[in-house]
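fwd from M.: "can u put these together and see what the complex looks like"

so here's what she sent:
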Amino acid sequence: MLPRGRPRALGAATLLLLLLVVVGFFLFGRDPEYGLRAAATFEGDPYGSRNRSASGLHPPLPPKCELLHVAIVCAGHNSSREVITLVKSVLFYRKNPLHLHLVTDAVARNILETLFRTWMVPAVVIRFYDAEELKPLISWIPNTHYSGLYGLMKLVLPSILPLSLARVIVLDTDVTFSSDIAELWALFAHFSDKQVVGLVENQSDWYLGNLWKNHRPWPALGRGFNTGVILLWLDRLRQTGWEQMWTLMAKRELLTLTATSLADQDVFNAVIKEHPELVHPLPCVWNVQLSDHTLAERCYLEAADLKVIHWNSPKKLRVKNKHAEFFRNLHLTFLGYDGKLLRRELFGCPNQLPPGAEQLQQALAQLDEEEPCFEFWQQQLTVHRVHITFLPHQPPPPRPHDVTLVAQLSMDRLQMLEALCRHWSGPMSLALYLTDAEAQQFLHFVETSPVLSARKDVAYHIVYRDGPLYPVNQLRNVALAQALTPYVFLSDIDFLPAYSLYDYLRASIEQLELGSRPRKAALVVPAFETLHYRFSFPNSKAELLTLLDAGSLHIFRYHEWPQGHAPTAYAHWREAQAPYQVQWAADYEPYVVVPRDCPRYDPRFVGFGWNKVAHIIELDAQEYELLVLPEAFSIHLPHAPSLDISRFRSSPAYRDCLQALKEEFHQDLSRRYGAAALKYLTALQQSQSRA
Amino acid sequence: MLPRGRPRALGAATLLLLLLVVVGFFLFGRDPEYGLRAAATFEGDPYGSRNRSASGLHPPLPPKCELLHVAIVCAGHNSSREVITLVKSVLFYRKNPLHLHLVTDAVARNILETLFRTWMVPAVVIRFYDAEELKPLISWIPNTHYSGLYGLMKLVLPSILPLSLARVIVLDTDVTFSSDIAELWALFAHFSDKQVVGLVENQSDWYLGNLWKNHRPWPALGRGFNTGVILLWLDRLRQTGWEQMWTLMAKRELLTLTATSLADQDVFNAVIKEHPELVHPLPCVWNVQLSDHTLAERCYLEAADLKVIHWNSPKKLRVKNKHAEFFRNLHLTFLGYDGKLLRRELFGCPNQLPPGAEQLQQALAQLDEEEPCFEFWQQQLTVHRVHITFLPHQPPPPRPHDVTLVAQLSMDRLQMLEALCRHWSGPMSLALYLTDAEAQQFLHFVETSPVLSARKDVAYHIVYRDGPLYPVNQLRNVALAQALTPYVFLSDIDFLPAYSLYDYLRASIEQLELGSRPRKAALVVPAFETLHYRFSFPNSKAELLTLLDAGSLHIFRYHEWPQGHAPTAYAHWREAQAPYQVQWAADYEPYVVVPRDCPRYDPRFVGFGWNKVAHIIELDAQEYELLVLPEAFSIHLPHAPSLDISRFRSSPAYRDCLQALKEEFHQDLSRRYGAAALKYLTALQQSQSRA
């Protein structure tokens, strides 16, 4: 029999306590990934349970529509490509608005500003921070890691991010998400009051210091922590005097060590060794590290689910790992993922459309899908994502008469690039119309071509495909806007210029004093064509004329579209010794060299037809002099007709739409140039009545 | 003061009870999507909480490595395309092994068997069930729904699936997953003892019966339930006498109603109306229905997360919905997703590699990445996913002398298809080497071309891209294997046959009695080429000869590779009135007509070079007679050199690898044909010593 009175009450209390323990176990204990065992070390069980049904409890996700903050340091062309793949993976799984804090050098800022402006992803805010300004804060630390000075910048984030920002997720550019970043953000809730930084333990033996004789790493707690994925509790860090703390620690270690080997990670680990109470260990699945000798397998074989993959080897995707194929596939998913599909709204969150998106949506909504030229109007309104200088690029040194070759292409003309490089030794600005997956094939193509990879003066700008019609003039404008020399040669990708053309153009610009003439001038480069894929390219005008007379070469489109080049006056050109002026005439579309600030191409011309004609009209309307150069030429190589030209030829509806574009163009022209534009309309009407 | 003794114990018990309620609330009550409120109706709050932090508890997921079962009914070409996109979306998020139970007609089975065999996804088991056998079970039910008889087959799944199978998820082909299917499977755990079928409520007013005057739908509980996503508890269904139950109900309703309008769904709802205790209502996010007048917005605006989207309108992706773009993007993600990336292992689960995968992995692992021809060996070993008859196709009626044109192409030759259709009025079997995204562009291309969409006798087989070299002979073999006529014309995509060629070949086959000759024969179709994209195609041999004499046409590759066609003896052909026999010679590669059971192309030849030469050697080794047809011809149209031919021309390493392939081929030839193969080796050595 139970004792009465107080003891009985005690018994009830004990029972209650027991029950609470049981409840506690159910609520927190079943999920070793997030619950009491979150602080387990790598040797323990940091993977989460083997049995997913036992790990059914997740930490509460942040409320719907809560803004999550992410900081990334990014510098240079290659890191900019990387960071975009990372951002795609985050956007794919995210369900919250995001604020990206990007610490960038000038190159990355230029690339990423253009990209995000044209990407127009709803509910994403971008803020840039100038990496240049941070350099003095960390340049005193010698660092031998491949990330260089930029690798150290994560240390100073608490000082440079806005004071209003309490918490932030910090990511290396070489990580890939395969889960919702909100789940990572949710782990802040498990920090104790003292903890300021959340990190995953290192999945290598580096910090154990026994990798080779005299291997002396920076101090760390056991295997140490990896800083590819960090939860930073910024306001607590500021309160604990983080800046002074890490600076002192780094200075102390640098008395005996010559440099950091793993950049910021060495410093973070040194601080944590001294202050282990500051770190909140994260489950290993949030930073699965794929270096060559990784121990990550212990993590992922057990885990139900991988959250973040970290390519933390200088070899990146080429890292040797028996499961490398699996991880590569996850990464390739986002490399090739069509970024425009990420322009998704977050339902039920306040409108967070990027600048311009609302007007664009309205304009698109006003189009009539049943209208015969719907595809044309839609294509004109399409905002394509643009990734400028996709590959490493060195801008040409400033030279007053320098000329950039400007052209555009899609995948089916890649094979022209090597020949073009052999013919044109100067700078080029090329717009490529590709899918995300094709952009990766293009990268591989350049990397495996000795000719192309040797050239750093060719800037490749990716304009991502969207829509059925080739946006030829939008592409030309992207390439033109990125040309950095005072003059541009507006060419097409199927043409090979004379070997001497680059030098000859610069000399001509200088001799003609183009920069200081009373009238602006466009230099005409006469165009020819061959029907043979393999032919010996003429080394001089004399050789060209011989081939012309032998019928191996022709004036470009002499049979199909003579008015396109007739005003160049080829008969005169044969004999000419000096540049000569020619007059505009209807349908004239020569290839020209003009100052970089020339009028842009009219982006309404999409698909095939009239896209260059309109540009030459614009030059003429702005009173450019047309001067034909006597020694200049370029030659068109044969190719199968494009899909657009095939549609133009076979579809009367397509031709009707082109006609509508022309008429719109002329109305605009009249509006802008008044009576002076009359001659173009008259010419159009005459040529139509002839047709 | 508290009363003592018994009342005190009662107090403690009450406290305990209270606590248990609180615990119960924490354990089950916080998640209205899965817990007590799961049975809420559409008018209530079936979305899950507005605040995700409050819905932190998920139902326990099935254990890691547990096999999940999915059943799908699929018939015809279009549904087969759909189901693949559905399966991709499931595979993308899944973390469990899957068993797919596919109820198919002959067309879908043929397509899907090939697809899954070549897809080689680990941890996926496929079993087919013949839809034909099920027809008698349901054909007595008149149905006006667009899905036809197949729409009703879900009703009989409990009878036809294996008795050992206790539970199964049933999906329509027009759903897309955006979550792990294990989360759906987990909802079985919430079924009460009586519940046998889990369904999401209808998100339209159809069953309310007030859509138009005299609109009389089948009986349903309120808005009724949608059967696009079903959890079927099979063994309970069998125990409750499901078959008898639904049959009786359907018969009763058909006394007053003329037919089902929504197929199986009408019957399910009629049963549920009578036995509401059988249904377990699922949260709406598991079947977000996008019909034209959908009420789904109520679901998805509130939900933190969409799980499954259902395109349940006959308009499918073209459905009008103000958020259609959002949903289309989710769907397009998987339409364009590279399926080979889904060949992912499930870490930590017992090995579940599909047939052949292990040998393949071993063979690939034995290759040396540093070896100069590594790319060639790797490409040869690559198993490409193959989707045969990607578009609706009617097999040609059996005719003893019929000929199928066989060719292969990639995206850059699409524009040849219309012209080819105009020149060849007979059946064609074409292999297309495309990415998943390009396959969608191709679909759009055919749908918008009146010429192509009118032709149901052209079979398009997609071979999915994988690797840097064009697997030309693997493609030819796919197209050849799918040709259904007794004879095939082995052509290339850049050739247009004479308008009369199809009729002429059939007549020749008949006259020459090819089927009953003592020796097998290959009929040679002489090949010519033009350098002009636009030219008038000759209507007769006489016209062809005139163009040849005028220099507008040439013998194919007469200048670059004369030995390829020299044995055809063009001078003799000019005058020939009857078929004449020619002898094999080194490097001969004519276009030929052969019986369908001819030797396959040697798949080791990838990229450019020698791929047809090897095939003609094989024909000669098997003693095919080579007969040139006096009135047959086809003409090659110009195009830019392919990437492969460009690499062949520019890279000595590439040519060395081709040489290695040739040598390997000859060794195999000697092995198979013994001394008879000597003449080919001698010829090769002679031609090499000349070069």
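replying to her w this: Residues 12-42 of chain A form one domain.
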